[in-house]
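Thread title: Can someone regenerate the structure for this chain?

I was given the following input by a collaborator and told the matching structure tokens would be attached. They weren't. Posting the sequence so someone can regenerate them.
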Amino acid sequence: MVENVLQVFQNKVTLHNTKRFVSDKEINNLAERYGTPLYLIDEKTLHNKLLELHNAYKGFQGDVKIAYSVKANFNPSILKTFMKDGITFDLTSLGELYFIKQLKGNPENIVYTSVTEELEEYIEVLKNGIKRIVVSSYYGFINLSKAANIINIRPKIMVRINPEVGVKAEVRASYRNGKFGVPLNGGKIDSAYLIVKSIYNSSLLDFEGFHFHLGSQITNFACYVNALERLNSLINKLKKEINNFSINTLDIGGGTPVFYNDPVPTPAEMASIYIGKLNNLASCHGNFTLMIESGRFLVAESSIMVSKVVNTKEYNDHKIVILDTGYHLLLDAALLKQEYPQEVILCHNDIYEMNSNDKRKHSTVKNIHLVGRLCDTLDVFPISKVSDMSDTNVGNYILFYNIGAYSLVFNMPFHCQTKPPVLMKTIDDNFKLIRKGTSHEELFIEEGGLLS
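Best answer:
Regenerated them for you:
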């Protein structure tokens, strides 16, 4: 039945159009003023993607909350934009907590999910008034119990489970013996069954619910159905052994796909596959708040990177197009071979118009290769199926679309490269600088150049 539904929705999928929120003239003006490479972010898109994701789950018969995974992009202006919408923030480090604190974020709107689950970390989290915490190990449960006793705060605990179901995704997070979460059952202490029972036997903690995350860029949503069925079995087992067992929150993580190269469903089409299962869980086990985590989906389509063609060379029927950027600014192009949609924009600068008679400008080649400025063979940008690279000539701009997730946060100084500036197009259609570009002098100092 699930596979039939999946096939129906896949037949309806159409190619998403890339989101262009700046004109050619604006790109030329901004590139001339700030240089390239340059990141551009659209505030309206951030609000719209949050609304789209929330509306996708309107069929759930209960409260729905969206949690933004800060790891995807922690730029303060993006965080402030989401704060206006009253969103929940999913944090995984004390560094992310520092950013939210500096922006006066409400601790009630935070879920803290640690990987290391250290005692000192939990003490700091509780000191800052965060009460919703996800534990992913028995050792984490012990450390959180100690921290709660020290700080004298009674936190609400969610247990991160690893459903160990098959997942078709660009990045899988659920598989047997995986890094994240704990198996549902088993004789070992690191199992959801034993940790939940330990929470109920604790005088320091309250059980809040369950959390799981199956992967990123999920393409077949039967995995959610399978995960919820396995969770239902665990809940039935716990209800038989714990008289007052109940669930207040169920966090089903992220995985909502973003368009890069291949067609993807909308969040509503995705949710339609398993919304019935969620309602059945609520009907059988009592109402709960459904939490949807998202990092990539909420921010990816909000952002464009502007780069410039600085050199080309041709041989046989191949053309090598060299850009003034590299994978140090779009690392997933190398790690995941991410095929970001690209577009060529003509440069209006007179200097480059002088090259209009260059015979290479009008040559026809079958194979275009976009490469970066780094001295590394991995510094090649896969070209999306929707991209037209026929006008890749020196001086023209190349736009990379849907780069808002895991690009700014992966910026690295390989080859002494500096961070480019970031601008946001605000709700009132003005551009404002939200991150200054760094200089080589600042990088030298940061790397200890002035230390004796």
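The chain has a mean pLDDT of 92.
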